[in-house]
Amino acid sequence: MTVPASTGVPILRLGDVLVTGLLNELDDKTAVAFADELTERISSDGARGVLIDISRLEIIDSYVARMLMELTTMSRLLGARVIVAGMQPPVAITLVELGLQLTGVETALNAEQGLTALGWHRSPQAPEGVLRDAHR
Amino acid sequence: MTVPASTGVPILRLGDVLVTGLLNELDDKTAVAFADELTERISSDGARGVLIDISRLEIIDSYVARMLMELTTMSRLLGARVIVAGMQPPVAITLVELGLQLTGVETALNAEQGLTALGWHRSPQAPEGVLRDAHR
């Protein structure tokens, strides 16, 4: 990995989709480091889609909201589509009260729906043969 | 959320699959908190599968290796299948040198293959209609 884990939040690569999440109590500095790391990873991994789960985020301020909007714009410029998933109702209420409508940010009800929108879906049966099982 | 974010690592729920990752420099206390939180989440979310991405883990010790084995056993008792994905070659070498073969732990080359094994797959085209787009 070329990018240090500055935010302490893992960014998982699922094919051409990056999956990550925000924790509660996100301070401004961590928010900036998160945006920087994610844009770096979009570029280095050649990601076409990004899923950001914010279901753990219980409060949001205008700084973090703006970070999400800027991150979406930057990602789009890099060719990746960002979906913000799992927003809690109090966060949505706060955003409206702040007058921040997250213009341009795609949202999904939860991470599952977000990942589906990014082109993954649940198969009826798990395929065989892709595992290396320590049993064998 | 009933479980506090004790480890600072988000656990994403993708339908009946939980997805999480370990960061490098995992100390013993965090490893235990991670295992506790994950088993709680398996139970509360009714998860059938768990994907643990360890691609960021550059070194492993016997404590963390045992945590992964115990976590796998506990998860199986709860009815969930655990896949550890993205192990780096030096970590595999260390495990063999330590005589820890992670018996019972299913592994996958990367998070993408792990998630595929847990029943998600990449669709050729992203479906429409699951998004709420702030543009509209």
UniProtKB/TrEMBL annotation, chains A, B:
InterPro entries named among the record's database cross-references: Bact_StressResp_Reg, STAS_dom, STAS_dom_sf
UniProt cross-references to Pfam families, sorted A to Z: STAS
Annotated signal peptide: none
Residue span, STAS domain: 7-118
Gene3D superfamilies: STAS domain
Family matches, as PANTHER family: RSBT ANTAGONIST PROTEIN RSBS, RSBT ANTAGONIST PROTEIN RSBS-RELATED
Name of the protein: STAS domain-containing protein
Organism annotation: Streptomyces olivaceiscleroticus
